Amino acid sequence: MTADPIVSVSGVRGIVGESLTSDFALRLGSAFGTTRGAGRIVVGRDTRPSGRTLVRAVLAGLSSVGCHCIDTGIVPTPTVLCMVGEAEAKGGIIITASHNGPEWNGLKFVSGDGSFLDEKGMKEVVSLAEGRDGFAWKGYKSLGESWPNAWAPYRHVRRITESKAIDVWGLRKRNFSVVADCVNGAASTVLPVLLSELGCKVNLIFDSLSGEFPRGPEPVAENIGMLGDEVKKRGADIGFAFDPDGDRISIVASSGRPFGEENSIVLASRLILTKLGGTLVVNASTTSAVDEIASRAGCKVVRSKVGERNVVELMRKHGAILGGEGNGGVILPQVNWGRDGIAASALFLQALLEWGGDSDTLLDSLPKYFMVKEKITCEKPLKEVEAVLLGAFAPTSIDRTDGIKLFFEDGWLHVRKSGTEPVVRIMGEARVKGKAEAMVGEAISSLGKTGA
Fold first, then answer.
1. Is 59 left (phi over 0), alpha (psi -120 to 50) or beta?
2. Euclidean distance between CA atoms 87 and 91, whole angstroms
3. How crowded is residue 361: how many other Cβ atoms within 10 Å of its Cβ?
4. Would you give the end-to-end CA distance of the chain in angstroms?
5. What is the DSSP string of 428-443?
6. 343 vs 403: CA distance, rounded Å
7. How many helices and strands, by DSSP H and E, does the chain display?
8. Where are the alpha helices (DSSP H) in 145-234?
9. Residue 132 burial (CB < 10 Å; 0-12/13-18/19+)?
10. Could you give the CA distance from residue 128 to residue 419 in angstroms, rounded to a whole number?
11. 277 — alpha (psi -120 to 50), left (phi > 0) or beta?
12. Quick count: other Cβ atoms within 10 Å of Cβ 175?
């Protein structure tokens, strides 16, 4: 390889043919199978063209160490998480780079409990894959087999419709009109099944399985203008936008106005905490609107480091009823232990059903915060970044759960290194948009002046 892949609790990601090759994918499959032991492993992928090659390498690697593979084909990441439990498998692998561009791909690793590997587990797999010894190679009589499974989407949908939060009959009676932008990704294989089950009139855009992303792959406001146009054109009740592997979702109101990806967890929190109560776990970068929602419902909010696995660990520790991240990620443990854009779409329809009005007034009813998100290339160690920021700002308090988060009377600023890209992320939130923009702008300027 000519470059190093990015390894984190989000899995392994790299540029195909450079930091991620078929050879390395095979070794990762063999390493994961070795650490799991011979048994069933669920494998799925998103629609990226490189996935066709990488999945063969992964299946070969798993087979070589005696693992029997349940190949779900193209399905959303959360569908694989569901299938690990359904199949009583020892783990799972999803070939996806989530929101990264089409030149990227990666592998996400799922443990037998249906959640992603923790940092220790990831290090074990990658260390073994990068070495030369330690693989549990099998002889020709003990090699694993692979077989396709076409039922994974239906198992996933069943789990969603069995959730205590979803009134299936009420939704069928309401017969919502929905437009969904699947970015030619994996959501196309499961979302129509769910929406049909919930009695919706379904219109899909960008629903091919080509893996050629027609817009920026992240479901953020600046990328989903065409969805807004389609929602207005068709007079739909609501619109949903997904990322390539279907674990993140954002909403468009009936007027075509985007909710903003931060409001995915806000809306889900209001529905679940008001309806069922319990503890909410979100990461350190998630909007303060969830704290306001939880306070109104008399519920507790716990914050983790950024990273899906980190959120899930605290959810299990605190027995949380809901978790998520401000990037459009919603985790409903009644369905599975990961971000699930498909399940979230059902929660949003339920919220709209119980609201009784249209999706524009639903959006207007949510707490108003403004967040600005930027990223820069910055090679400085975190301690130096912190010193620069404290020289430029006078916070009322500091949180070092993940990077450095500075609190002010009227907002906060969070700076941390990304676990999925070679960048530093800078986020600011305030009640006034100009304040958030000013904080982030000053942070970028200060880091730039010091040779970031």
1. alpha
2. 10
3. 12
4. 27
5. EEESSHHHHHHHHHHH
6. 30
7. 15, 20
8. 152-161, 168-174, 191-197, 225-234
9. exposed
10. 21
11. left
12. 11
Q: What is the distance between the alpha carbons of residues 273 and 297, in angstroms, rounded to a whole number?
A: 6
Amino acid, res. 157: V
Q: Which ranges of 211-258 would DSSP assign to H, the alpha helix? A: 225-234
Distance between CA atoms of 245 and 72, rounded to whole angstroms? 13
Residue 98 annotated to the active site: yes
Q: Specify the DSSP class assigned to residue 273.
A: H
Residues 111 and 121: beta-carbon distance below 8 Å: yes
Q: Are 93 and 110 in contact (CB under 8 A)?
A: yes
Question: Which pLDDT score, from 0 to 100, does residue 93 have?
Answer: 98
Q: Which helix (H) or strand (E) holds 361?
A: helix 359-364
Give the 3-state secondary structure of residue 301: strand
pLDDT at 1: 41
User: Whole-angstrom Cα distance, residue 360 to residue 11?
Assistant: 37
* CA 400 to the chain's CA centroid: 23
- Which amino acid, 104? W
Q: Report pLDDT for 445.
A: 92
Residues 238, 251 contacting (CB under 8 angstroms): yes
Q: What are phi and psi of 251, to 5 degrees?
A: -120, 145
Q: What is the pLDDT of residue 452?
A: 40
Are the CB atoms for 404 and 429 separated by under 8 Å?
no
The DSSP bridge pattern shows strands 68-74 and 40-45 to be: parallel
71 in Cβ contact with 393 (< 8 Å)? no
Asked whether the beta carbons of 132 and 144 are under 8 A apart, the reply is no
- DSSP-assigned beta bridge partners for residue 252: 239, 258
**Cα distances (Å, whole numbers) of residue 41 to 55, 66, 93, 264, 399:** 13, 10, 8, 31, 39
292: number of CA atoms within 13 Å, CB side? Answer: 13
Q: Which two tokens stand for residue 239?
A: 């619109």
Amino acid present at 33: G
**Exposure of 405 by Cβ count < 10 A (0-12 exposed, 13-18 middle, 19+ buried)?**
buried
The segments of the chain whose pLDDT lies below 70 read: 1-2, 449-452
Distance from the Cα of residue 179 to its chain's centroid: 21
- Catalytic option among 30, 63, 64, 98: 98
Residue 337 DSSP label: S
Amino acid at 55: V
Give Cβ neighbours of residue 228 (< 8 Å, ≥ 6 apart).
239, 252, 256, 257, 258
- The count of other CB atoms within 10 Å of the CB of residue 82 is 31
Residue 196 dihedral angles phi and psi, to the nearest 5°: -65, -40
Please answer whether residues 28 and 61 qualify as being in contact, where contact means their C-beta atoms are separated by less than 8 angstroms: yes
**pLDDT score of 449:** 56
